[in-house]
Every structure is written in C-alpha cells, then in structure tokens.
Amino acid sequence: MEPAIVTPNKDGADGEKGLSLRWSARLSLTTRILVVNVLAIALLAGGLFYLNNYRDRLTEERLTQARMQLTIVADALSAADTQDKDRLVRQFSRHLGARLRLYAPDGTKIIDSFALAKPTYQFIDPESEPLRKDAARLLDQTIESIVFSAPIPNFSEPAKDVTDAWPELVKTRDASGAVSSVSLAPDRTPVIVAGKSLPDGTGSILLTSNARDITRIVRAERSSVLIVILFAITVSILLSLFLARTIVRPIRKLARAALRVRMGHSDEIAIPRMPGRRDEIGQLSRALSDMSAALRDRINATEAFAADVSHEIKNPLASLRSALEGLERVEDPDLQRQLLDVANDDVRRIDRLINDISDASRVDAELARAKFEPIDIGKMLEQLLTAREQRTSNQGVHIAFARPAKDVARVMGDGGRLARVFGNLLDNAVSFSPADGLVEILATPDGDEIVIHVADEGPGVRPEQREEVFQRFHSDRPDGETFGKHSGLGLAIAKTIVEGHQGTIRILDRPGGQSGACFEIRLPKAAG
User: Fold this and answer.
1) From the CB of residue 469, how many other CB atoms can be counted at a distance below 10 Å?
2) Residue range 259-305, pLDDT digits in tens
3) Closest listed residue to residue 403, CA positions, set 447, 375, 444, 457
4) Do residues 69 and 91 touch, judged by C-beta distance below 8 A?
5) Which value, in Å, is the radius of gyration of the alpha carbons in the chain?
6) What domains are there in the chain, each with its CATH number?
7) DSSP state of 496
C-alpha cells in the first residue's frame, strides 16, 4: 500500500522555511494547542513565586517585631527590681504569646516563663495530626522546591539550656541590638528566636515564639491560587480539546478524503465541502473539493484526448502503411508516383496533426503562466489582416473589417494567444466561404465586455452541431476539400484560449436570414 504522503517534506523557497517550527515538528496539532494553552496557565502559576516572597516578607516583619519587643522587654527588666522580674517575665510572655528566658552573666538560666506559668505555645507532633495536614506540609515542600526557596533549619531545644547553646545570644556579645533568626518546628511552622543582652549588663534575655499564623496565612493564599490554577487548567484543557476537535478532526477528514482521491480508482470519491462551516476550514474544504473536481475533469479530458490522438494518428498511419506496402507490389511507374504522393500527404498530415496536438496540449499550461497585458483588439486584428494579405492566406476571399476607434476595444490578455484565436477563426471562415465570398469582422464594446463577430457566407452550422464543432478532432469540411488538410483542433484550441481569458465563444445565425456562420467572442473589457 502506498504511503499517505508521497511528497518529501522540504522547506519551500517562498517563506515556508521561516514558518517551520522544527522544535515542534513531531507534535500533533492537538498537542500544540494543549501546550500553548497550558503554557499560558503556567505563567499564572508564577504567582507561587509571589506568595513565597510574601511569606519571606511576613517572616522578616515578624523577626523585626521580635527584636523590637525584646528590646522593650530588656529595658523593662533592667529597670525593675529583682523581685519584680519574675512577674514582668510572666506578664510579657502572656501578652506576647512567647517564651522568655533570662540568663545570668555566667550563662546559666535563672528565669523561664514556661516554669512560671502555663506555656503560651506548644509544638505539635506531626504524627498526631490528620492526613490533610501531612498533605499540606508536602504541598509546602513541593512549592518551596519549585520556587527554589532558601532552606530553613529545623528548631531544636539545646540539651543544656545555657547562653552558649543559643547562637542568637552568642552573637549579642558583639552586637548592640537584638539578634533574631527563624527555624522550623516539627510541623514545619516558623519558630522565631530573638536574643539580646540586658542594658545593665546583668545577663541576657531570649525570646522564642511559634508563628503558626504565618503558615496559616500563606497556606490559605496558596490554596486559593492553586484552586484558581487548577480550575483554569481544567477549563483550558477542555477548551483546547474543543478547539482541537473543531480544527483537527475536519483537517484529518479532509486529509483522508484527499488520500482516497489520490489512491482511488472511482470518480465518485470527492472531498467533503462542509457547507455548514463558514470559517477558514470551510473555505479550505470547498477549495480542495473544487480543486479535486477540476483535476478529475482535467484527467478525464487528458484520457479522452489521448484516446482521440491515438485514433486520429492511426488513420494516416494505416494509409501510409498501405501505400508503402503497395509500392513493393506495384511496378507501374505512374501508380508508384500516386502511391508516393499519398505517402507524402500522409506524412504531412501526421506532421500537421502532431504540431496541432502539441499546441493543444500546451495551451492550458502556457495560459496559466502567461502575464496578461492590455490588448487593443482593433489594432491586433488590423495587423493580423495585413499579415494574411502579405501571405495571400485569404485564397480570394474578401475580408471586411470595421475597425473600432483606438483603445475602444481593449481587453486584458496574451496577445499571441488571442491572435491565434482570430487566425483560427479566419482560417475556418475562409475555408468555408465560396470563391469571391465575404468575411465580415466586427469588434464593439458591450457594457463590461468586448464583442467580436466573425461571419462568413459558407453553408453555416446546424444548431445541433454548434457545440460539437468545438470538440477536439471534429472535422466537417466542405465538399471537394482535400481530406486530412485540417486536424480538427483549431476551434478547440480557440475555445480553450478564449475561456482561459474568462471569455466565451459561440456560433450564431447571421442576421437577416443570410447563409453562413457567425462566431461570437465575448471578452472582459480592460479596466480603465
């Protein structure tokens, strides 16, 4: 079985190379539509970067707030009496929702708010939380990995609670203000740690708090964004599939139909026209349908033409073969000369037939490549008649031409081909005209058309034969004319050329009941 595509896939020279997408050459149209639409949603997902920065800003604000709070607490404790420090630590711890620890100059812990009152926060064991919390933590880790978030260390209480066990307190020895940092609790919520030396030099103070609200706020925002993204992706995929269905399916249908037309052997196979579609695909389907119909007609015409050519060439070849075979058996010189004359006539007939066949087969292709220019029909016919008189092609027949004014009968066309049309019509009219007959030519404008009449005084054409005379190899010559002098292609070529110029040609009765034929050609008038 033949492959579906027989033409090699090469970049054209007319701009196709610039339109080719080599990176997606192997992707189907459906995949490309999905990728493009989902890519737009991926840009929306960039909001996760913003949310990660939002979390970092919240954390930084909380660290700044912790340092300010710790500075206030340190100033208050430095100004308080020793017996009031326990009360102040307990009250500050309750109001700030934090754990405060006071250390002596030697580094030992002397006050702990969790020992004075009920703890203001408690770390949650992840193993005791429901599954949805595990999913939330996994989502946090996934998003942080996607946005390349800076790693945050895990929080842990030192084995020996002294000053040197806390980096924040160690750093305060060389810093005038408070030092803060963030770490993660076992349930991946932020733990804010801030340390500061007391202004009176009697020790240092440490603040720790579990900022669970930061995680709650960021998770809520992320959940909202993810819901929007998932909804947008779902809608985008559904719309992409709908778009792909309305585009890809009809294109595949057209491709399969075109493949059947190429591989089929039946004239009934046709490209679907999709009359219900008014978009570009509908236009494409109708254009392909018209193109396939035109190609089918051209193929049928070519096959019929080939059959006619074979039939027409067989006749002179058979006559030539008979003449040559007779020469071998005939000894009479006069009869031999007659046979040689027959053979020469057959050779000239074959040569003339081949030339006409060559012209008929090339005329369509040459018209398709021809560049049409403004042609003055009056001037062309005048030049054509002058050339015929110089060649004595009129055979004693008079030709009367009512030349129109200059530029009155102008058409767009190929001058050489149009001259061939009028030459063929004149040859036909002269051959059918009696001795001293008259051929009349008239070219006049008629609205948006130029009408040319070529009338002779011959026997005319019967109405039932007026279409047949334009068929290839049709020949119905006057009595007494030498057989085989005409190939029967002249009028067929003329009709092809006229139709190639968007015109029409037909045979009419001469006015007033006069005998003869009148060929009428209508060509579109040149603009301007």
Assistant:
1) 20
2) 777 776 556 667 777 777 777 777 888 888 888 777 777 777 777 76
3) 444
4) no
5) 50
6) 47-222 (3.30.450.20), 270-369 (1.10.287.130), 370-528 (3.30.565.10)
7) H
